[in-house]
Specification:
Blueprint lengths: L9 H13 L4 H13 L10 H15 L12 H4 L8
């Protein structure tokens, strides 16, 4: 892995840190992910997890169809695992 040094204005750095903090990551990770996305070509192998890409695409399509996930759609645990409570 190579290190890169980048100089940016203080205000740009401050905003990048705020953005990274809101997304639970670091400025370095943001820059790394951006550079990986620039270097990725369709059909090429990259450091991006293909399962994550597939998941993101699925959620994007569900949102477009108005079929997003909702907490109201959840089933009770006993139904989910087919474990009806037995009388004592």
């Amino acid at each position: 892995m190579k290190n890169i040094t980048v100089s940016v204005a203080e205000e740009v750095h401050r905003r990048a840190r705020i953005h990274a903090a809101r997304h639970g990551t670091s400025v370095s990770a943001l820059v790394r992910d951006y550079l990986v996305s620039l270097s990725a070509e369709p059909g090429s192998v990259s450091d991006v997890d293909p399962r994550r890409l597939a998941q993101d695409e699925l959620f994007r399509r569900l949102d477009q169809q108005g079929r997003g996930l909702s907490a109201a759609d959840r089933q009770p645990r006993n139904q989910l695992h087919n474990r009806e409570r037995q009388p004592a």
